[in-house]
User: Fold this.
Amino acid sequence: MPTDFDTTKAQFVLPEGIIYLDGNSLGPLPKAAAARVARTVEAEWGQMLITGWNKAGWMDQPARIGDRIGRLIGAEPGTVVMGDTLSIKVYQALASALEMNPTRRVILSDTGNFPSDLYMADGLVRTLGNGYSLRTVAPEDVLDAIDDTVAVTMITEVDYRTGRRHDMGAITAKAHAMGALSVWDLAHSAGALPVDLAGVGADFAVGCTYKYLNSGPGGPAFIYVAPRHADAARPALSGWLGHEAPFAFDLDYRPGRGIERMRVGTPPVLQLAALEAAMDIWDGVDMADLRARSLALTDRFIAGVEGACPDLTLATPRDHARRGSQVSFRHPEGYAIMQALIAAGVIGDFRAPDILRFGFTPLYIGFDEVDRAVDILARIMATGAWDRPEFKTRAKVT
Assistant:
């Protein structure tokens, strides 16, 4: 059956009078999440106390939810586990990949990657020393830059600023042909578009859940390890829950089987409960339907804004194959324009130096919201309503 996007929309808390185009940064609250978390707090933590780890299945949450996310990203069963933050998972994947390719010393990434990924890679190579380095090239030059010196490619599939999408299949194939491993960051892919990790032969992948997957602020990240590597990848962060037998309290670390070894610390039970409620919505979503709707929404927004706001410059690719599920426009006063939009009830966000960023999540955004957002943006641009001091004062979070 085709995905019923009216049904999915009805399952989110969407404040009256707000057009929310920032689900690519923080997804809205699923209506079932509050009750699900309350049950975890009151009936499980409150009544079961520590026995909840067994009776309520808390210890199995990371793998159970990992498999549900795995369906959305084309991962084989038993290859995705939840926990920690995305930066931690980036570090884990990179460290494991480098150790598996010991004759190479180069991590290849691009200048459009999310800075935190680059910071983690830089910190790792500084710790390792011994000639390890991080090499960055322009996003469009990644494929040509993969040579026989590269140990691992670390690429975010969809650029967080522009929405430009890398060709995961081509980059992974080139990496393997040159003897490198691949690490993919799916922060702006998981829940935004179809991903086929198994099909392209990806080695490692990581991602967060508070954007398109709607787990709430600070929601836990996930990590994928291809089955062929699952018992060979040594976790650099050897946490007790990644141990073969955590409750043996062995003083010597022995990695667990498969993806379990990529667990580190105690899982965030309350946040995972919220994520489980969100995943219930995804059970009725076909990813091909989602992609078709996303492209139709973004096409309509691009056409509307370009027709009504000639001072804004499109930063997102027009080509469907190269576009994620967001649209970005450039303007020197992008921050002030976005603040004026937010004040008028259209919530997007700003990314330095000049990007107005809009996320399109078909689960709760339709064509009516797109048209109204275009009208409001056009009015703000035509009247210069953004040119006020209060819209130019930078907040901590942009």
Residues 96 and 234 are 6 Å apart (CA to CA). The first helix runs from residue 5 to 9. The radius of gyration is 22 Å. The chain has a mean pLDDT of 97.
